[in-house]
Design brief:
The complex is a heterodimer of chains A (73) and B (318). Chain A is of the alpha+beta class and 73 residues long. Chain A is built from two helices and three strands; from the N terminus they run αββαβ. Helix content of chain A is 37%, strand content 19%. Helices cover 28% and strands 26% of the residues of chain B. Classes of the chains: A alpha+beta (73), B alpha+beta (318). Chains A and B meet through strand 1, strand 2, helix 2 and strand 3 of A and strand 2, helix 4, helix 5, strand 7 and strand 8 of B.
Chain lengths: 73, 318
């Protein structure tokens, strides 16, 4: 009988510890996601299409284009 | 994942320059050597190609009055690329166009420009002769002609600087050089995928019009300056070599992807003075390039299948 009570108590103790840990740990913060970007593009044959680019999947850019500077006179 | 992008940023060739290498935790010394090599190569290119250094090889050539002039290997290379680009673009890229820009009224800093009518480009004509004697390392220009290699020179310097990094560190996993928008990339990124190049949106400053994914090659962008000058602010800085005057048709900006940044720059210049149909035909005739053409109004026009990060096509709307 003593053995049965010991098993029951240890199971309850373990469940209590698991419940305490689940309650005390903050939920994982959602990974911030940049908004998907929608482009209207026209293919060479003149057909228009909507395109969705998902920056969150891609990650940050390694470089960004810039227009060539105006030549100085 | 322990690799990261070791990078250096500095001012040169009239712009902000960035070089970066994919580097592991024990690669510090090799990474620094590669970045130093990139920087040294850009400085060497500027010393030969700059129009703003009186002692540069280019300025000696421009001042030679049509005489044969000994020049360095970088100027020789860039002139060879420029001549090939002039031929490839049917003359819409022309490195001898600067006198026409000055005649159009852009003869001083923008803030000092006056509201005066554009002058005709006088005796200037497109396609001035540039003769190369490669074995002797000498060049001769048409008397009265002068060359400006600003854009294509930066593209050339970006590619050369990237090569210099791989020479300094032969097992370099990957690298990037960005000279104010003339971008050259090769090899692996720290994350293992392709290099991600954001295309700046000319209509919405600070935002992007798309993302290019590039394993290796060059990227350059050209477009009409939003700062206009002359009567009724009708003029801009993109000269059409066919007329010697600011070009009529053309996009707000066009970004070109090519095998090298110099080629990308030359083709971007040509497409920037082309209407959409001409631009599409040009890209179709040059399978080694692709472009993202952004007009004043209307839709973004991808030409020649640029490597855009398009995750999926949603719906066809026309």
């Amino acid at each position: 009988m003593q053995r049965i009570w010991a098993v029951v108590l240890s199971v309850w103790a373990m469940l209590a510890i698991v419940a305490f840990l689940a309650w005390s740990r903050p939920p994982a913060a959602p990974v911030p996601q940049a908004a998907a970007q929608t482009l209207v593009v026209k293919t060479v044959n003149g057909k228009q299409q909507l395109v969705v680019a998902q920056p969150a999947v891609l990650g940050a850019a390694h470089a960004t284009t810039a227009t060539s500077a105006v030549p100085k006179p | 994942m322990t690799a990261r992008l070791e990078r250096v940023e500095w001012r040169a060739v009239g712009t902000t320059c960035i070089a970066g290498v994919t580097s592991g935790p024990s690669d510090g010394r090799r990474a620094r050597a590669a970045l130093a090599a990139a920087r040294a190569e850009v400085e060497a290119c500027e010393a030969e190609l700059s129009r703003f250094r009186p002692e540069s090889d280019l300025m000696r050539l421009n001042g030679a009055g049509g005489a044969w002039t000994a020049v360095g290997p970088r100027l020789l290379d860039t002139l060879r690329l420029a001549l090939r680009a002039r031929e490839d673009t049917g003359g819409r890229f022309d490195p001898t166009v600067l006198p026409a820009l000055v005649a159009a009224g852009y003869d001083r800093s923008f803030e000092l420009l006056e509201e005066r009518p554009a002058a005709s480009p006088g005796g200037w004509r497109a396609g001035a002769a540039i003769e190369l004697d490669e074995p002797a390392g000498c060049v001769r220009l048409d008397p009265g002609a002068s060359v400006d290699l600003g854009g294509i020179g930066k593209g050339y310097a970006a590619t050369r600087a990237l090569d210099a990094m791989f020479e300094a560190w032969p097992s370099l996993p990957g690298g990037l050089v960005d000279l104010g928008g003339d971008i050259a990339v090769r090899g692996a990124t720290p994350e293992g995928g392709p290099w991600r190049i954001a295309v700046a949106d000319p209509l919405r400053p600070g935002e992007t019009a798309g993302m290019l994914l590039l394993g290796s090659g060059g990227v350059a962008t050209s477009g009409r300056d939003r700062r206009r000058f002359g009567p009724n602010a009708s003029l801009h800085h993109l000269i059409d070599p066919a007329t010697g005057r600011p070009a009529e048709p053309g996009p707000l900006s066009v970004t070109v992807v090519a095998t090298g940044a110099a080629e990308a720059e030359a083709h971007a210049t040509a497409l920037a003075i082309s209407g959409p149909e001409t631009a599409a035909a040009h890209v179709a005739a040059h399978p080694r390039i692709s472009a993202l053409y952004i007009p004043d109004r209307g839709d973004v026009l991808p030409l020649g299948n640029p490597p855009l990060a398009q995750t999926r096509f949603l719906v066809s709307v026309a």
